[in-house]
Amino acid sequence: MGRPALLLLLLAFLAPGTSLVPRRVLRTLSSLHLPTSPASHSSVATNYSVFYFQQKVDHFGFSNMNTFKQRYLLSDKHWDKDGGSILFYTGNEGDIVWFCNNTGFMWDVAEELKAMLVFAEHRYYGESLPFGNNSFQDVKHLNFLTSEQALADFAELIKHLKRTIPGAEDQPVITIGGSYGGMLAAWFRMKYPHIVVGALAASAPIWQFEDFVPCDSFMKIVTTDFRKSGSNCSVSILRSWDAINRLSSTGSGLQWLAQALHLCSSLKYEDIPNLKEWIMETWVNLAMVNYPYESNFLQPLPAWPLKVVCQYLVNPSVPDSQLIQNIFQALNVYYNYSGQAKCLNISETATSNLGSQGWSYQACTEMVMPFCTNGIDDMFEPHQWNLKKYSDECFKQWGVRPRPSWIITMYGGKNIKSHSNIIFSNGDLDPWSGGGVTTDITDTLVAVTIKDGAHHLDLRANNALDPTSVLLARSLEVEHMRRWIKDFHDNVKRQPLSNF
User: In whole angstroms, what is the distance from residue 244 CA to residue 228 CA?
Assistant: First the structure.
């Protein structure tokens, strides 16, 4: 069913013919970042230790006594037991070492906040597999892959750390996460306010559900990003879909398309929907990682990659063959900036560190995010959101039916005024900002908007090319966190806490 796409999503399982893009997973939803290999520590993430904590497979029942080892990473290089803090990364859909190595913000502020850093891996991702190699065997084994169970894992892990690390008991904990991890960070503060004093939820589309935001908001932002990055850029992409349709109508046209796009395999007519999804997914990913400096979060990319891409798409009125050759040059920026690729593989768009299999199941159960396009206000072919077809596709793949309203029931949707101490940050270039909290709700549920910021730019490490907007955003975020930490320690002095 489709391929893993970003993030972010990341974030929706789009059934063929019912929505748009990735049939596997439009996500991101996840993350942050810096160039690094998941197998080694980066120049930012240094001096951490790897630990495992025995977790219950089912926190909410009493008959299943099975347990599994949850992996977490810990660094206490800058931790101060007197007046310090614990910054807790709520792991999302992927290998936690990859997120640790790519979350430069936490490493940058650790000394200032006298913080212990903890990166907790989400169940069913990386090495934290409840049933080992059988974790994805069937629905029975997958039944415990939910956001609620993951939040309970984090709560149990924090309690364990406070019980077993001398000096950690009277330390304030702040959850931090980006994309789906940002959603978890916010939801954790909502569900467990007695365990954490606050949360930084970066690029967290907690309102990308049901009809809270228009289903076309995501792809309209993608289109706006391309429109702003080059004259006629989005128009060229809009015209390219019909060009592909016309060229693929004959056998010779299919052969020419595969050659013009330098694909690794030949094309059949039935491959065209997958080809267009792959191209669409590429444009989405580029919008999400449109950073002001070179990066390789998803792929090695130049600074402001959309501007580079749009240099090849200035003339939408050229013949079909020339337009497709221009599209190839644009795609090549994403897939071959390093110059190492010999051909383009339409089954791959992003790093393998993101857990597409687990996320596609989550998108078929709780994480149901409607997407649509109309081909008028965006640069994509029209696709309507059809929950029934989406549900049928999920049932075909996983044997489950989605519950589109459950997230709202669990976490309150837009009715969250009773909560406190959550920072919602969003970049105005990030497509996921359409489903995020972009205006203050109360004095303590605050929104931080980052001009010229792509997907959770604020969680990336400091860079000399950072726009002033992200520097100000990080400064404001740290200011809030310092206040939470101070308030916590002031309260402890007045009334020492007991173990929870």
Answer: 24
Tokens representing residue 288 in the block: 């999400």
Spatial distance between the Cα atoms of 432 and 486, rounded to a whole number of angstroms = 32
Q: What's the angle, vertex CA 499, arms to CA 55 and CA 110, rounded to 5?
A: 75
| Residue whose structure tokens are 């998941």 | 38
Q: Which amino acid is at 305?
A: P
Pairing mode, strands 115-120 and 85-90: parallel
Q: Do the strands 10-12 and 26-27 form a parallel or antiparallel pair, or are they unpaired?
A: antiparallel
* Set 33, 122, 383, 455: catalytic member: 455
**Is 340 exposed, middle or buried (CB count within 10 Å of its CB: 0-12, 13-18, 19+)?**
exposed
**pLDDT of residue 479 exceeding 80:** yes
DSSP 372: -
Query: Which carries the bigger pLDDT value, residue 128 or residue 340?
Result: 128
Which amino acid does the sequence have at 402? P
User: Using alpha carbons only, what angle is made at residue 307 by residues 245 and 450, rounded to the nearest 5 degrees?
Assistant: 115
Rounded to whole angstroms, the Cα distance separating 115 from 488 reads 14
What is the amino acid identity at position 409?
T
- Residues 32, 38, 39: CA angle, nearest 5 degrees: 160
pLDDT of residue 355: 56
Q: Quick one: which H or E segment has residue 176?
A: strand 173-178
Q: Which helix (H) or strand (E) holds 119?
A: strand 115-120
Residue 430 annotated in active site: yes
Confidence check: pLDDT of 34 > 50:
no
CA distance 446 to 476: 10
**Which residue blocks in 320-355 are alpha helix, DSSP H?**
320-335
Distance between CA atoms of residues 324 and 247, nearest Å? 9
Q: Which of 430, 452, 458, 466 is catalytic?
A: 430
* Residues 441, 462: Cα–Cα separation, whole Å: 28
Q: Which of 135, 179, 356, 391 is catalytic?
A: 179
By CB neighbour count within 10 A (0-12 exposed, 13-18 middle, 19+ buried), where does 16 fall?
A: middle
pTM above 0.85, yes or no: yes
Q: Which residues contact 493 (CB under 8 A, 6 or more apart)?
A: none
